[in-house]
Design goal:
alpha+beta, 10 strands, transmembrane, N_methyl_site, 5 helices
Length: 244
Amino acid sequence: MNNNDRPDELNKGFSLVELVIVIAILAIVGLILGTLITTGINLYQRQNKDLNLQTRSQLLQSQITTYITNADLGLYMPEGSDESSSMFAVLSIDNEYYKEKGSAQKQSDFENGTIHARAAIIAYDSEQGKIYYVAGAEGSADGIPVIAEFEDGKVKKVTITDSESMYSDDMTTWPVLSDYVSDFKVKVVDDAKVVNVEMALEYSERIYTYDFTVALRNDTSLYGPKSSEESESSAEESESEYRY
């Protein structure tokens, strides 16, 4: 039988309608697969970002807790000890200085309320969404040499004794402790014995908030001279105790 004698049905190809249907089916299948793949990738990225943000926030909480706990002279708040602050100095006794000067000088300074210390500064920049931490000149973590002036057991003033030990006056050049920070406030409570910390880290639509307290290592209430009111109160208490 000659090939030219085949029925027309055997020589007929795909019709335009059939091609359109096939293309439409392939497009739908491709769209579904693409949506599933995109959804999976987005879900993975979001979970990964959530995990990173959670890990970052927990690490920041641990770091802040450690810095405050190690502050054997407490904290200094530029805005005042009774106010919440987004910037503060962590103060520790300058043991190297008093090792050279002797214990008598140390005791005298503690009674007078003028104590040589080492400071590390923690500051929050709301515009940048970052917390900065500096503890000396570039490459140094020894702390900034300062004199902390105490009154009634609270730090009233801090003076840097060596300007060259400071990293920079521009806070944005300081080492970054954490980013993605949307809120950060610290307040000393309970007569300078406890520090309350409020902070929040935010990325995209995810936010982690923390509100916790940290107990200071030392009771600083005995540092420095007493105000006249407190001295009178102490005298009255002593006299009352004596009468009884």
